[in-house]
Amino acid sequence: MHSFGYRANALLTFAVTILALICAIASFSDTLSTPTPTSNVQVLNINRFQKKPDGDDEVSLTFNISANLQSLFTWNTKQVFVFLAAEYETPKNSLNQVSLWDGIIPSKEHADFWIHTTNKYRFIDQGSNLRGRNFNLTLHWHVMPKTGKMFADKIVMTGYRLPQAYR
Amino acid sequence: MGFTGDTAASFKSIPTRQSFTQAITLGLIVTSALIIWKALMCITGSESPVVVVLSESMEPAFQRGDILFLSMSEEPIRAGEIVVFKVKGRPIPIVHRVIKVHERQDGGEECVVTKGDNNREDDRVLYPPGQLWLRRNDIMGRAAGFLPYVGWVTIIMTEKPVIKYILIGALGFLVITSKGEENESILQVNFPSQF
């Protein structure tokens, strides 16, 4: 009843239980904060807008993203993964989401940023529906905790439009 | 008492009852673990509620050895979600992020493309030849939460199976050779609800 093995086993079980409890509380503390992020995207130029040989439209664009995501960081945050997606509807598809750019914000200091870039991933449609198309640019973020539940949310920015003709 | 009584008395002195008790408690441990696993499968709705991260393709978010808790709901798949999927011909599930979604108008099929955060290219090179998109039934679950480092036990046991056999052998040896009462105390500490 009081052998070394028995005590070691009891200690280990207790330690693991307490550790799991602490992780759960840490994760719960994330739900208590209310973030207030802001963002703004300007499309500077449509560099290329063509129909590919296989029939799908492709766009290449240059844009400015400025955002302040500092309020998303808590003490339990490891990093925030942020990406910008173009979202639009076509006659065939009720929703299309194409990620144009993504980045990793490792800490709160880097969360207030401004970048000027072309799209990191190819903006290709399923089909040829992009001429004159209205689309939203949505900034999505995914908060990865040091332990526990992950949170994701987004800001939708509307009012962008592709040109009527290829160029 | 007579002859029958004497035989019955000597029969009881052999520790068969003790061995049976030990075998039953061992079986109880194994079945409890199985019940918990199956219950998790029901609660999360995914056929594999916990997975271990095996590659560095999602660093720095998920390191090798982290475990991910999955869930699966009927909600449509959206860009940004971290999903776990299996590709035909590869037995190991892959945990990557959805970067493209095209959902059909009739509220039906979605075609998605995934990519690991730390990879240069998207996952089309991993899909079987001729397959450009992943569908809903390729996806086993969405990552909902994670615990760091805990998965190393599984990785070590998979990559060096010797350790798995040693561990199981040692546990079995301990259970069988230790005295029955000590066993029950150990089980009382670990599974208080059953006593």
TrEMBL record, chain A:
Its membrane topology: Single-pass type II membrane protein
InterPro entries: SPC3
Secretion signal span: 1-33
Cellular compartment(s): Endoplasmic reticulum membrane
Record keywords: Endoplasmic reticulum, Membrane, Signal, Signal-anchor, Transmembrane, Transmembrane helix
Entries under PANTHER family matching the protein: MICROSOMAL SIGNAL PEPTIDASE 23 KD SUBUNIT SPC22/23, SIGNAL PEPTIDASE COMPLEX SUBUNIT 3
Family: Belongs to the SPCS3 family.
Species per Swiss-Prot/TrEMBL record: Daucus carota subsp. sativus (Carrot)
Domain of life: Eukaryota
Spans traversing the lipid bilayer: none
GO BP terms, alphabetized: protein targeting to ER; signal peptide processing
GO cellular component: signal peptidase complex
Record's function text: Essential component of the signal peptidase complex (SPC) which catalyzes the cleavage of N-terminal signal sequences from nascent proteins as they are translocated into the lumen of the endoplasmic reticulum. Essential for the SPC catalytic activity, possibly by stabilizing and positioning the active center of the complex close to the lumenal surface.
Main location (coarse class): endoplasmic reticulum
Name recorded for this polypeptide: Signal peptidase complex subunit 3
UniProtKB/TrEMBL annotation, chain B:
Keyword RNA-binding: no
Membrane recorded as keyword: yes
GO BP: any one term: signal peptide processing
EC id: 3.4.21.89
Record's keyword terms, sorted: Endoplasmic reticulum, Hydrolase, Membrane, Protease, Signal-anchor, Transmembrane, Transmembrane helix
Molecular function via GO: serine-type endopeptidase activity; signal peptidase activity
Record's signal peptide: none
Gene Ontology cellular component terms for the protein in this record: signal peptidase complex
InterPro entries noted in UniProt: LexA/Signal_pep-like_sf, Pept_S26A_signal_pept_1_Ser-AS, Peptidase_S24_S26A/B/C, Peptidase_S26, Peptidase_S26B
Main location: endoplasmic reticulum
Domain Peptidase S24/S26A/S26B/S26C: 36-100
Catalytic reaction equation(s): Cleavage of hydrophobic, N-terminal signal or leader sequences from secreted and periplasmic proteins
Localization per record: Endoplasmic reticulum membrane
Membrane topology of the entry: Single-pass type II membrane protein
Membrane-spanning parts: 20-40
SUPFAM superfamilies named among the record's database cross-references: LexA/Signal peptidase
Job description of the protein: Catalytic component of the signal peptidase complex (SPC) which catalyzes the cleavage of N-terminal signal sequences from nascent proteins as they are translocated into the lumen of the endoplasmic reticulum. Specifically cleaves N-terminal signal peptides that contain a hydrophobic alpha-helix (h-region) shorter than 18-20 amino acids.
NCBIfam families (UniProt xref): sigpep_I_arch
Family: Belongs to the peptidase S26B family.
Name listed for the protein in its UniProt record: signal peptidase I
